[in-house]
Fold these 2 entries.
Entry 1:
Amino acid sequence: MTTYVLYFLLVLVGIGVGANKNTLQMLKSVNFKILLIPLSVIIGTFLGTGIYSLLDPNMTLRECWAVGAGFGYYSLSSVIIKEMAGESLGVIALLSNIIREIFTLVFAPLIARIFGKLAPISSGGATAMDTTLPIITRYSGTEYVAFSVFSGLALTLLVPLIVPLVL
Amino acid sequence: MSFSVIAILLLLAGVTAGYLLRSFKGFIKISAKLTDASIFLLLFFLGVSVGMNDSVIKNFEKIGFQAISVTLLALLGSLVVTALLSRFILKNRSKRN
């Protein structure tokens, strides 16, 4: 039953992307370098979670990567992970991705200062297109809106693709 | 068919449908509401199955600790790599201001 609701949600996520006027405008004026932003988020997340898997004997590399591959998108990632790997990991994914979003909302100004203007976009991950967009705009600047939406969008679409792939 | 393949097809179907129907009044609104409803429903089911699972409830502290730790390392990785990107490849100089 959950699986069918999940499939339905995936279609709805696609619709949300396709029907969005901003998405279309942005895709028309894209410079390929912009792809490096979500790519850096993916590489960085996998490096970080990879290191964690070395430190924690109770989590395998795949499990750590799956959790990280939520990129903040807690609802979709936790459900997929629970379906594929059980409730325990599903809960870890839920908590982890919620924390990622909250961290971005709370620490955006700090990380923008220490790591640069792209930092809040990076930490926001998939949420950079909606929930953390306002805070990103506020602390990185309005010039970063397009990068934020693009990166968030790319990662949002990649979550349901990468998570099952690593599990 | 693996989940990933199904997911790609469903996403593409959604994007196509969304694009074609984007001008229809109320379509976007209804889609957004259905999205929210689906998310709430799925999270509810997740909660129910978690509540029924004794080992999750018993290990909640450990699970919480793992969640926080994974997240902090994931964030550290993301922030460092993105910072390197903006410093060396995109030559973003606003860090110096």
Entry 2:
Amino acid sequence: MDIKLKSVGEVQVVELHGDIDASTAPDITKFVSDLVKTNIRLLLDMTKVPYMSSAGLRTLLSLYRQITAKQGKVILVGLSEELVDTMSVTGFLDFFVTKSTQEEGLANLTQET
Amino acid sequence: MERIDIHPTHSHENFKLRLGRPQPFGATIVPGGVNFSIFSSHATSCSLVLFKKHAKAPLAEIPFPDEFRIGNVYCMVVFDLDYENLEYGYRMDGPNNFQQGHWFDPSKILLDPYAKIIGGRDVWGVVPDWEDIYHHRGRIAFDDFDWGNDRALEIPPEDQIIYEMHVRSFTRHESSGIKENHRGTFAGIRDKIPYLKELGINAVELMPVYEFDEFENSRPNPQTGETLYNYWGYSTVGFFSPKAGYAATGKFGMQVDELKTLVKELHKNGIEVILDVVFNHTAEGNERGPTISFRGIDNKTYYMMTPEGYYFNFSGCGNTINCNNPIVRNIVLDCLRYWAAEYHIDGFRFDLASILGRDPWGYPLANPPLLESLAFDPILAKCKLIAEAWDAGGLYQVGSFPAYGRWAEWNGKFRDGIRKFIKGDGTVGQIAQCLQGSPNLYAWAGRAPATSINFITAHDGFTLMDLVSYNHKHNEANGENNNDGSNDNDSWNCGWEGATDDVGINALRRRQIKNAIAILMVSQGVPMLLMGDEVGRTQNGNNNTYCHDNELSWLDWNLQTKNAEILEFVKHCVAFRRSHPVLRNPNHFRNQDYVGSGYADITWHGTKAWNVDWSDGNRAIAFLLCGKHAKQGTVEDNYIYVAMNMHWQTQWFEIPGLPPSLQWHVFANTGAVFASNYLPGTEPVLENQSGILVGDRSVVILVGK
């Protein structure tokens, strides 16, 4: 798992590369949890995530809970069609705002007050 | 502060261990590891067998140290497991003596009876590796679903309208029009929620969804060579696991989340979920069956055994679960509590439930402890409990199932009575009881009308279209020389056996279908529709399609267009029931006027108003419900008059008069030349308020308002 961070204005952009499963999920949790502060605007770019296991999806939801508890906002970007389908039928998609590209995701995160 | 039990105290090879907790049974995620707990009254030793997901050979075997056994329970925490990619089972040693009923065999790896996910049949119909040393593999569930504000709907029982369906059959047909990977799955049902809502039902009853093996007794169809499966799944492998092959995400092991998401979405749309559960036997069959789990863990405890060491067979499926053994009773209770609490299930329908009232030697108990425990359980307190009140051993308890004020029953006598009446047997006395929620069966015992689950068709037997198209079953495709399936169908083919181009016969069949639906929907009690009957689904006369994963079983969504007229009629009748509380009384009729309306709550009529011919052979009857008595006079409703003429000749029915200022309106007339039925509230006024011509084999429903 390769994790890259950049800041675009107020938004923290985290680019993930690799499968998210029980073995890689703890790294992501650690990385993102360290970023989380009040009112965080976080964009998770999943374009290079081919597969998320059950543990991977739980990690995302857990991060979502951490972020919203601090009045923050998170957007998922670039999910493959198959991942969207898996997330949809297992209920995880209901919690997330998703966009196709970083540009759209950034626009969404910055237009909010 | 840290608890000290996050630290291991023992080790085995590379695994770090600690004494576990005996409860809960099963595999439970705890801080730092997984707590494994399993009981056996007769085992002499036990090992935990771990596999990496899908691996042929075990990753490790960890014997339970002596000090990790508490009573008859082996319990151990194993730390630092990659539990998402883990499969587990047990190996047990102990006595092996046929006559004594002991079947311990340490060469077998055994499935945990409490496994929450079971791998091995991850994708429906994928042929398993028959050489596999461990077929149905326990996996560890997170059980951390985010339910938001959801909870069981707790719809009053008398307001329920149940739709019985098979998960795979509902959307497997390509005409379902949903994404290919959703077809035949829980996700597929979710995609079709708008259809269910439009139909108007408010509960789905899912045929078995606990893990089963579709390859149990699979064989080629002698006629076509196509594989015949254990398609319906009335043969449980694991009672705590959803069927992986019913989940679009089964291949990822996410069936738990997928089913929970379906339940949550159905609830959001006002639809309850009832599970058809099979606690009478397991997939291990008789003496010649496979050892999957119970047989190798504690055969004598889990099964009813003859003194010679054979399996009692009250289920007709080889073995019988020993339900009133105190240990087995607890596993059934644990199971239902788990589904009620963890999956927000609204109710359960118990297959061959009379077995649950037999003692360990098979004798019917007057006061079966299991049924009593379920009825008074605090976690199940709001769940619907529905019994299929008979078994294959000859116990028939419709009307006498031990109910403890809780249990409802599939009313087989309603089914038979209505079928006979519709085909013209002239059983007016019998159907008068059916229409009132079978007070002859239930009122004397203080059991409400909603005790009666009213159905004319169910998965066992003909579909409604076949009920009016066949005199005899045609089960040749099952490969059992047409010997399987019921011979008592009370069906009538309307003049020709099977499909025909005869316009008159087809018109009569459609009318008979509508008559059945109309009578079902105006009867007190809880109506249950069989999936597809609303669009005239046929099984070509096969009344037992338990083995067919093909178009014989699948719902063809094109029928919505082909039989649009039937679908519209069903929708209107369901809507009619939902808009009239007088059809959904919580208590039985008293046959008197106790609100001062001038009308008794229910009155009976014939071709002459206020005058019924109750003699056998009479085929014409009508009844009037007084709207002022709706729900015991607590709500205001219209008056409803239903005339049923199952004679082959048209008859003039004199209609009872209404209070001044009210008029009769026509909701439905199945015999009208242009079939007429209306959305409730839009019914036209009846021209002649004193009488109506009811066509041959027709039903008329009027609303007085």
